[in-house]
Write a structure and sequence with these properties.
- By secondary structure, this protein is α+β, with helices and mostly antiparallel strands.
- The chain folds into two domains: about 10-265, 2-methylcitrate dehydratase PrpD; about 275-405, 2-methylcitrate dehydratase PrpD (60s Ribosomal Protein L30, Chain: A, 2-Layer Sandwich).
- Helix content is about 50%, strand content about 10%.
- It contains 20 helices and eight strands.
- It has helices at about 10-20, 30-50, 55-65, 80-95, 115-125, 130-150, 160-175, 180-190, 205-225, 240-245, 275-290, 305-310, 325-330, 335-345, 355, 360-365, 375-380, 415-425, 430-445, 450-455, and strands spanning about 70, 80, 100, 265, 295-305, 370, 385-390, 395-405.
- Strands 6-5-7-8 form a four-stranded mixed β-sheet. Strands 1-2 form a two-stranded antiparallel sheet. Strands 3-4 form a two-stranded antiparallel sheet.
- It starts with 10 loop residues before the first helix and ends in a 17-residue tail after the last helix.
Length: about 475
């Protein structure tokens, strides 16, 4: 029998080769449709975040360090590509409504690539087709890596693999050779080992901006590689590479040129960590079906899978009893359940500091109990399930077991529903005509340039100036 010869090509070179080979023909019509849906989702998330205080601070930072530049900021202004990557990536992440990818190896947020790839595409004066292809490549790389490495279980943040994907996608847009893309990946990743402590209590602003800093470094690293800078070839298999850090082989088939991972991404309806999506759908379903008055509630119990309990329910990532800031609130199932019951919605308004600290929601969250469930844990991440039990003051009990949610793989969010979500998020910042223009351009992005898209995004107001009539995606 012939002896099978194992490939000795370093993983970083195999990833670079994958990125280099990627062609528009690999983006099949159904994958294109879903990629456009996720692009519109990212833009809606970004626009909704524009009033956030950190973005005014970033604009001050850009003015101090550098003015002008080749790239647009969503909401107006121009700066250098790396700064634009940081700013626009931060916008996409800020209201915690971006897409996710779940796998046995852990989760990641593929839209974390969006700001970096958009900046690189605009800097390179790329077509909409080239932008979509580079974004699809970045999605593929980040999700394939996440599927084989339980990054957060190992104590690291999923911005680590983002450095690999964002650098590869950026390198492709900047016209780097296969060798140069490999160096860009190595440079970006070697100095971007991100720690999971960014998710632990008290959660800080850096949870949401760590991916943006990663994208910023990826863009800058690709530019350095274009100018001849080299990175460590042993990034994965070397004596002190990623395989040693993670304590396992990183076996990914980079010879597979398909760009189909977009089919495995899931979207959100509520401003919450992904683990909270079934929880909030169940809570709001119970409230609406029973015409529930929050004043009648004695206690609420939420049973959820172990990961949801650890990250959002008061488990290993810390107590959830006293949220005070936005970054704590959207990672706090007690707060999210309480505010959903009181406000009948969990959107950007529910993440404002005045709402988080209000007496009514602080009082109700103290009567919410979160517990891990072994059965739900065994089914995670294939399914994101929960059980909500509400005890009323009159002795009546309301119970709902939720199997997944709208937006997951079993009930994916359609283009039409995504348009509803985009309009909800962007309504205060863009009039109906501008919103329609953005939607239509994303729908036919391969017929436009990236400059066409960013030109529209520059017209979005950085502050809420238009009347709000949309009740949210119900």
């Amino acid at each position: 029998m012939p002896v099978e010869v194992q490939s000795t090509i370093p993983a970083v070179n195999a990833i670079a080769a994958f990125a280099t080979r990627a062609s528009a023909g690999a983006l099949k019509p159904d994958a294109r449709r879903l990629l456009k849906r996720n692009i519109l989702d990212s833009l809606g998330c970004a626009i909704a975040a524009l009033p956030g205080a950190p973005f005014a601070a970033l604009r001050d930072q850009f003015a101090e360090y550098r003015s002008g530049g080749s790239c647009s900021l969503i909401g107006g202004g121009r700066t250098a590509p790396d700064q634009a990557a940081l700013f626009n990536s931060g916008l996409v992440r800020y209201v915690d409504l971006l897409d996710s990818h779940m796998s046995p190896g852990g989760l990641c947020h593929p839209a974390d690539n969006f700001g970096a790839i958009l900046a690189a595409a605009e800097h390179a004066q790329a077509s909409g087709e080239a932008f979509m292809l580079a974004l699809a490549v970045a999605y593929e790389i980040q999700c394939r890596f996440s599927a084989v490495v339980p990054v957060m279980e190992k104590g690291f943040n999923h911005a680590t693999q983002l450095a690999i994907s964002a650098a590869a996608g950026t390198g492709k847009l900047l016209g780097l050779s296969e060798r140069e893309i490999a160096h860009a990946i190595s440079i970006a990743t070697a100095d971007n080992i991100s720690l999971a402590c960014v998710h632990t209590e008290p959660v800080s602003q850096w949870k949401g901006f760590s991916p943006g800093m990663t994208g910023m470094r990826a863009v800058y690293s690709a530019s350095l590689a274009k100018r001849g800078f080299t990175g460590p070839s042993g990034l994965f298999e070397g004596p002190n590479g990623l395989e040693r850090m993670f304590g396992q082989k990183l076996d990914v088939d980079w010879s597979d040129d398909s760009l189909e991972i977009i089919h495995q991404t899931i979207l959100k309806r509520f401003c919450s960590l992904i683990h909270g999506q079934p929880v909030l759908e169940a809570v709001l379903g119970l409230k609406r079906d029973n015409w529930l008055d929050p004043r009648d509630i004695e206690t609420v119990r939420c049973d959820i899978f172990q990961s949801g309990f650890d990250i959002g329910g008061g488990g290993s990532f810390g107590s959830k009893d006293g949220p005070r800031f936005k970054e704590q609130a959207d990672y706090n199932l007690k707060y999210l359940i309480a505010v959903a019951l009181l406000d009948d919605q969990v959107g950007p308004v529910q993440l404002e500091q005045s709402r988080i600290r209000a007496d009514d929601v602080q009082g109700l969250l103290r009567r919410v109990d979160i517990r891990p469930d072994d059965d739900f844990s065994a089914r995670y991440p294939r399914e994101l399930n929960t059980r909500i039990s509400i005890q009323l003051k009159n002795g009546k009990a309301l119970v709902r077991e939720q199997l997944g949610y709208e937006g997951d793989l079993s009930r994916p969010l359609s283009w039409e529903r995504e348009v509803e979500k985009f309009n909800w998020l962007s309504e205060p910042f863009a009039d109906a005509a501008l919103r329609s223009d953005i939607i239509q351009m994303v729908a036919r992005l391969e017929e436009h340039t990236v400059a066409d898209l960013t030109g529209l995004l520059m017209k979005v107001s950085p502050t809420a100036v238009f009347p709000v009539n949309n009740p949210g995606i119900q």
